[in-house]
Amino acid sequence: MFRPLTRLPGASTFTILAIASPPLVYLFVRSLKSYRHWLALGPGGFPPNPLGWLAQSIFQIGVAERDTTSTGCYDQSPGSHDREDKVPESEAEVHGKTFLGDWKLPKREGGRAKVAPFVVPQRLELGEERTLEEIKELEYSAFNNLFTRYTHKLEIRTSRLERHGQALFTAPHIPQLASTGRIGREIAHIHESDGSSHVSLTYRDAKAAIEASWAERHPLDKVLGNMSYVFVYAPRSKEEVEVVGRLWEAGVRFMVGERGE
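Structure (tokenized):
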């Protein structure tokens, strides 16, 4: 007659707990440390609570890109049918253009900034050099001046992606590019916590910004359907604000439909 198994043969409950406890304790400590690290970066995207951290962790483990500084994805023809971002052929030509004009993008002094190991929000690592308040004022001034110069083609409102902070959007009467994917009309926004920013550029300009160590790709760019949505490191000086401002303007010119070079 069948008798239910009430305990594992040769192993007491104490033994099972003794074996399972160290890994569980280790996992809990690692998760708590990661959660506190994530919270310290400031708000952005997912809600700042355990569920938000869990959601970003799932994306990070499941679909995030590991190498966000590679530019090989931009070398393939934008109109190619086997591209993961599915850029329509009608927009392939514009991605081969630059909106930086004849200005030569300089190399970033000191190389790349260190970025925190999370996908949402994408921010500078804690302890990495932040934008000083006086420099941040210049940064926001450049951002607002850009809106003023293109005010008939832009809107400025709360970022749809970050869910806080101001962002530049194309105005409703401007045709929306299909290659922006889930980014939609949002062109650029600044992160108040560290002075870094995000902007959508053409493939050519995104590649130039990454190779000059001013930016890197978003780990979820393929999920967002926008391979040219890049994370721009925080400016550390007046001169660097000018560089970052030129990248924003290149994004604006691209998104509002101007003719590049």
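The first helix runs from residue 13 to 40. The longest strand covers residues 154-158.
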